[in-house]
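Pasting as-is:
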Amino acid sequence: MPIEVREKFESRRLVKSVTGSNSSAELAYIVLGTDNDIAARDAMEADAPANYANLPRQSVQVEPLGPGLWDGVVRYALSGGGGGLPTGESAFQFDTGGGTQHITQSLATVQRVPAPGMVAPDFQGAIGVSADGVEGIDITVPVYHFAETHYKPDAQITGAYKGVLFNLTGKVNGDGFRGFVPGEVLFLGASGAKRGGGLGGAEADWEITYRFAASPNVAGLSVGPINGINKKGWEYLWVRYSDQEDTAAKALVKRPVAAYVERVYENGSFAALQLG
């Protein structure tokens, strides 16, 4: 008796998401004429279409109902089981939680309150001054974290491209990037996983997430009596202090005498990431 595959009346269950990323479909079958589960599965796979509702075939399942009788389901979804977007698509995430920076200088001293009969020394904005130095404090500063997930063809993710990701990690944009001017975006690195093709012959691709942090460039900063300081987002500003006499308070105080802007990250061309 030849193996016979029949589609059930209640077949063709479709789910379409708003984004299309979790769309799926199922075709239900009855398989007759064999007691061999592998033969039943192969017969149903041969009968079912490789693609249905623009979705590739992902799995073929059979369960025994009785002698020579099998219940079968063929499932369709995007490559990777429907949990991601198709090749060539992208997804984006961001947060503005900010970052932490240690500073030794305030924007302004709001109030100096001396003890009775004393004069509060003027440290010109230095924070946490002691006899040994300037302690400073940790503050939250504007840092815009964002990530992009791209689904790239397998052929594009070569060893050379992985090397590009490695070499650009920890570098700052040398050119404009995503609306930010040079010096504002730091590439934090990328992570990726290969998504295998489904049973329907869908080509394998890569799901890669690229992570960035942005901090604004600033100009015209002042530190105590020092003016005209320009600092790019990921450059580091530090202040040198020296002991000076506060004649009003009759005390030796630490005051800023120089400000330094240091470049601590190399520049890189983010065009090499090929993000479009």
